[in-house]
């Protein structure tokens, strides 16, 4: 039926599409503890949202469907394993509704890249459906649903900069100055569980300490001084990602040689992240990485970026 005239719409339900913009993340510190009995790892995970965004549009429909556009759209699952679809299902079930929504994902965040692209779409779909269905679910409940969807999903909702503890889902906001980044997108993805399993294998004979947020890193993050932050960046998953994808070493080296202040694997990879002094340095490092033949594509971005946000219609 035409927009605005659906007689069956429950009160509060919008009939016009709702679009939510949601950022990617980079982990400036990812301290990983030993595997827990439930298979997850305790983390001290300092998340930083960066200005690479997906957009999820929710439109009333006769059934739950997902479509995707963007250069890597063919790598995005469109079934119920997509966190956007799962978010709609969980929210609808809580509200006693049928998830009669079409979710369209405009995909710019690298897929299976260690930048929480799938988590971002879950958080965005949750907020879009909550708005479309006029539910006004309290923020705390939305965060609970996010945590049910995945360890990184709560951060995608809140954005900015935060310390994640537990399996990464318990968030404390932290202060962050502004920074500039280059990201190198690798060919193919890496499976997060596989990278954690490789971490377990590589640390099997070592005593893995309790993960702790680094005071020096938090101070550098707050200061906005890129040299100070560069000296403190740390990712405990990097050896595991490099072990599964040794070719990432050449990408890290190419970015460092081009003048990046620091080079590291983003989260579980295989995207690599390069901290640079300013926008000009970002353009230079991105051009050098593009010319190096060690990655598939590059993106430049700044941080921090806001969390999931409903766009004006
Ligand atoms: O929470 P999420 O579903 O995103 O986690 C995906 C997988 O990553 C988990 O099944 C687990 O293998 C691994 N993981 C972990 N410890 C964490 C977060 C994720 O081992 N803190």
Instruction: Please give the CATH architecture of the largest domain.
Output: 2-Layer Sandwich
> Structural class of the helices, strands and pairings?
alpha+beta
Uncertain regions spanning at least 5 consecutive residues: 1-8
**Tell me about the biggest sheet?**
8 strands, mixed
* Name of the CATH first level of the largest domain: Alpha Beta
Domain GHMP kinase N-terminal: 82-160
Domain GHMP kinase C-terminal: 218-292
GO molecular function: kinase activity
Keywords: ATP-binding, Isoprene biosynthesis, Kinase, Nucleotide-binding, Transferase
Can you describe this structure?
The protein is α+β, with helices and mostly antiparallel strands and 313 residues long. It folds into 2 domains: 18-173, 2-Layer Sandwich (Ribosomal Protein S5, domain 2), CATH 3.30.230.10; 179-303, Alpha-Beta Plaits. 33% of the residues lie in helices and 27% in strands. It has 10 helices and 12 strands. The chain has helices spanning 83-95, 117-132, 139-149, 153-158, 192-202, 215-223, 226-230, 238-244, 248-257, 279-292; strands at residues 18-35, 41-60, 65-69, 101-106, 161-165, 170-173, 179-185, 234-235, 262-265, 272-276, 297-303, 309-310. Strands 1, 2, 3, 4, 5, 6, 8 and 12 form an 8-stranded mixed beta sheet that branches. A hairpin with a 6-residue loop joins strand 9 (262-265) and strand 10 (272-276). Helix 9 (248-257) packs across helix 10. The longest helix is centred in the middle third of the chain and has 16 residues, at 117-132. The two termini are 20 Å apart. The model is unreliable at 1-8 (pLDDT under 50). It binds cytidine-5'-monophosphate (C5P).
């Amino acid at each position: 039926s035409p927009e605005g005239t659906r007689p069956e719409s429950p009160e509060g339900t919008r009939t016009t599409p709702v679009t939510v913009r949601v950022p990617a993340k980079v982990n400036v510190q990812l301290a990983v503890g030993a595997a827990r009995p439930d298979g997850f790892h305790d983390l001290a995970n300092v998340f930083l949202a960066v200005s690479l965004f997906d957009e999820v549009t929710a439109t009333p429909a006769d059934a739950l469907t997902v479509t995707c556009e963007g250069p890597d759209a063919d790598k995005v699952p469109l079934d119920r394993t997509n966190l956007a679809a799962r978010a709609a299902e969980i929210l609808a079930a809580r509200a006693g509704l049928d998830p009669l929504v079409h979710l369209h994902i405009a995909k710019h965040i690298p897929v299976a890249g260690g930048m929480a692209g799938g988590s971002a779409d879950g958080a965005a779909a949750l907020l879009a459906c909550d708005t479309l269905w006029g539910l006004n679910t309290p923020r705390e409940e939305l965060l609970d649903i996010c945590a049910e969807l995945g360890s990184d999903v709560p951060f995608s909702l809140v954005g900015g900069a935060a310390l994640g503890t537990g399996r990464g889902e318990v968030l404390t906001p932290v202060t962050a100055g502004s920074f500039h980044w280059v990201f190198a997108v690798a060919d193919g993805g890496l499976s997060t569980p596989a990278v954690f399993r490789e971490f377990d294998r590589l640390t099997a004979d070592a005593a893995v300490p309790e993960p702790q947020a680094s005071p020096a890193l938090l101070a550098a993050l707050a200061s906005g001084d890129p040299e100070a932050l560069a000296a403190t960046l740390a990712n405990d998953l990097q050896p595991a990602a490099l072990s599964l994808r040794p070719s990432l070493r050449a990408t890290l080296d190419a970015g460092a040689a081009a003048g990046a202040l620091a080079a590291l694997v983003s989260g579980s990879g295989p995207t690599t992240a390069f901290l640079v002094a300013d926008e000009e340095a970002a353009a230079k490092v991105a051009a050098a990485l593009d010319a190096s033949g060690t990655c598939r594509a590059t993106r430049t971005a700044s941080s921090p970026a806001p969390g999931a946000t409903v766009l004006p219609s």
